[in-house]
Amino acid sequence: MMPVLVFDIETVPDVAGIRAIENLPAGLSDYEVAEWAFQQRRASHGNDFLPHHLQRVVAISCVLRDAQHFRVFSLSEPESGEGEIIQRFFDGIERYSPQIVSWNGGGFDLPVLHYRGMLHGVAAPRYWDQGEGDYHDSRDFKWNNYISRYHSRHLDLMDLLALYQPRASAPLDDLAKLMGYPGKLGMDGSAVWQAWQEGRIAEIRDYCETDVVNTYLVYLRFERMRGHLDAAAWAAEVETVREALGRIDAPHWKQFLAAWPQG
Length: 263
Hints:
The structure is a single chain. The protein is an alpha/beta fold. It has one domain: Ribonuclease H-like superfamily/Ribonuclease H (Nucleotidyltransferase, domain 5, 2-Layer Sandwich). Helix content is 48%, strand content 13%. It has helices at 15-22, 30-45, 82-96, 105-119, 125-128, 157-161, 172-178, 192-197, 201-225, 231-246, 251-258; strands at residues 4-13, 55-65, 70-76, 99-102, 154-156. Helix 3 crosses helix 4 (105-119) and helix 9 (201-225) packs antiparallel against helix 10. 34% of the residues are buried.
């Protein structure tokens, strides 16, 4: 069984980067710098979504499922800085060569990790292998790698389910709830910057973790639909997730399970 690594990132504006690029006055607060950048973006693009290279990574949450275990974990501040968070994520790919799964990872998460990883000198040779590496199975990566859009080592569920048509894409929260899963609880991506400024870093991490479990549960439905799991295997895997979360003594998982009725 190839390990499966489902991932999600949370970001805040790279205030230091905006200061450096725009040569802004030193007296501006972080809040003022970010608001200036949001206003500039709204004027030029009609929304305040900052470009990928100015998104600072503050959390990466993962589900790792291998033949023995189901684990949920996070790499996040304040325990680690941005460069260490990103390096540890790519170290996991180096170690396991997993199937990686995301929701809009091709459109957001991975491009952000590319830019921010380069800024910090992150090494990710396995991730970038396209058949020319020194690994024993590198030749296989020529035909199936993490980078090429239609290869499957990275499965962007949002992109694939929409058949690569942006107008057909669905929000993860909506799809999870339609399937009977909890969806987003207490926070969404638009609230992360405010939470960061208020020092609610643990809440950001917890939100990211619940998002990645929602993604894994939707992925299991997809595995059932495409015939990789039959009904019994799918039900058993869903129960594995429920039992694993029940063993974690944390409020966000108690809330998640309470919002996920049995049956």
